[in-house]
Design brief:
- The radius of gyration is 17 Å and the shape is globular.
- By secondary structure, the protein is an alpha/beta fold.
- The chain contains 12 helices and 9 strands.
- It starts with a helix and ends with a helix.
- GO terms for molecular function: hydrolase activity.
């Protein structure tokens, strides 16, 4: 069932990416300078709508954008799903990941010459052999474990697995403290779970070792402590921007996030 769901999500992403690549084609035919396509990968406890404000800013500035659907099943399988989107979008790309999505873009972009820049938004940048859970615990400060709502279910092939949600009454404080309460309540109700195994799975590759990266560090983050984010950004030699924001910085500060993405995009066309 998981593979079927992932396939369905990938098909939805194809439709969006086709629109973006079509826009790029029209720009080329008009003789205009083509901007790279920005591909956005959401993280755990979120969905593609978490990028809505960022998408609006990028599109207003002339960037084609695709918000890919992240199955949240595991870095390797999620990266495989994202690569189908990357393969469908023609031309240069800037790949952006939020939270666990940073783990996914780090693997999906490996050995892809069309990915010109990586942007990490309050995100994981694991080295090969590291997991999201391991990195979260590298420095103190995450209060996520006490806010989780685990759901265990029977797998079709036998055995059990666990999905992780954030308890709805703790969602705003934990995940989106600087987002208006009504909007945070909608985000809590619509959140998508991440497989517990996905946070424990070790990274197989790290595209940030060879592709230039930009990093937004959120200093009021209760999911991934700022100290962890700074450690990963420094190790990757990222161009780093710090902001006093919650983990949901793309929702609360869409202009700042889009500005960093656009800086990365401009750097790839010099």
């Amino acid at each position: 069932m998981v593979s079927a769901v992932a396939a369905g999500l990938a098909v939805g992403a194809f439709a969006l990416s086709g629109t973006a690549s079509g826009a790029s084609g029209r720009a080329e035919s008009a003789g205009k300078h083509t901007k790279p396509t920005v591909v956005l990968e959401h993280g755990a406890f979120a969905d593609g709508s978490s990028w809505n404000g960022v998408i609006a800013e990028l599109r207003a500035d002339g960037y084609p954008v695709v918000a890919a659907a992240n199955p949240l099943r595991g870095p390797a399988s999620d990266a495989s799903a994202l690569r189908t989107v990357l393969d469908h979008v023609k031309g240069p790309k800037v790949l952006v990941g939020h939270s666990y999505g940073g783990n996914v873009i780090s693997q999906a972009a490996t050995d892809d010459p069309q990915v010109k820049a990586l942007v990490y938004v309050a995100a994981f940048l694991p080295a090969p052999g590291e997991s999201a859970l391991e990195l979260t615990n590298k420095f103190p400060g995450s209060t996520l474990p006490d806010a989780l709502d685990p759901v265990t279910y029977e797998q079709a092939g036998g055995g059990t697995a666990t999905d992780l949600y954030i308890q709805q009454d703790k969602f705003r404080q934990q995940f989106a403290a600087d987002v208006p309460a009504r909007q945070a309540a909608l985000m809590a109700a619509a959140q998508r779970p991440v497989a517990q195994a996905a946070l424990e799975e070790k990274a197989a590759s790290a595209a940030w070792e060879t592709i230039p990266s930009w990093n937004i560090v959120t200093t009021r983050d209760l999911n991934i402590p700022a100290a962890v984010q700074r450690f990963m950004a420094k190790r990757a030699h990222s161009h780093t921007t710090e902001v006093a924001a919650s983990h949901s910085v793309a929702v609360s500060h869409p202009r700042l996030v889009s500005d960093v993405i656009e800086r990365a995009a401009r750097a790839t066309t010099r």
